[in-house]
Amino acid sequence: MPESLRTVASAVFFISLSISSYLSSFIVNIIHKLSRTDGGMSWLGGHDLNKNRLDYCYYIIAGFGVLNLIYFTLFGSKFLAPTKVVGAEELQLVEVDAHIGGNMSGRQDEV
């Protein structure tokens, strides 16, 4: 792999990582604001994990995963390359002697 391609690949990886971090903090803030009841605690409020409703937050995250799966299968199936089958012909692989000084017929030269 060329050095420039490795640099671009790592840059794309870290950009996607930072975008996902910002997106997850945005989702947590939205859940925190929407789940707050009148004067009560939200699903993520407080320090007592027994009173928090983390299960609801994970249900929402699982729902996003299901939506992503549906999105991927619907749009990904439209962009699959069609497969071609040429009759009943099959390609046959020919074994080639890869030794240095070997010939293509597979026979050993007599010396």
Summarize the structure.
The chain is an all-alpha fold and 111 residues long. The chain contains 2 helices and no strands.
Mean pLDDT: 79
Question: Which residue ranges are poorly predicted, with pLDDT under 50 across at least 5 consecutive positions?
Answer: none
Secondary-structure-derived class: mainly alpha
Most strands sheet? none
Taking all Cα atoms into account, the compactness measure Rg is 29 Å
Strand content: under 5%
Helix share bin: 40-55%
- End-to-end distance: 43 Å
The tally of helices reads: 2
Describe the structure.
- Keywords: Membrane, Transmembrane, Transmembrane helix.
- Belongs to the major facilitator superfamily. Phosphate:H(+) symporter (TC 2.A.1.9) family.
- This is Major facilitator superfamily domain, general substrate transporter.
- The protein has a domain at 3-79.
- With 111 residues, the chain is an all-alpha fold.
- It starts with a helix and ends in a 35-residue tail after the last helix.
- Helices cover 50% and strands 0% of the residues.
- The longest helix has 32 residues, at 3-34.
- The chain has helices at 3-34, 54-76.
